[in-house]
Amino acid sequence: MAKKTKSRIVSVRLISMAMTGFFYQFTRPRTSPPMSMLKYDPVVRRKVLFLEQKKRGNK
What we know:
By secondary structure, this protein is an all-beta fold. It contains no helices and four strands. It has a single domain (11-52), classed as Single Sheet (Rubrerythrin, domain 2), CATH 2.20.28. It has a four-stranded antiparallel beta sheet, with no helix packed on it. The chain has strands at 9-16, 23-29, 36-41, 46-56. Belongs to the bacterial ribosomal protein bL33 family. It is found in: Mitochondrion.
């Protein structure tokens, strides 16, 4: 039986570094580096750094 090919797009979760538990979910190309960006965290009501936590499968 042939192996399945991996998807070119992966779904990732960006977690707030303010430790509020708030997150954003994005899709990115598999070949790109891990994401990090400044975005608004409504819990602390300011922009904070969000880092990619882990890759998630499309299930």
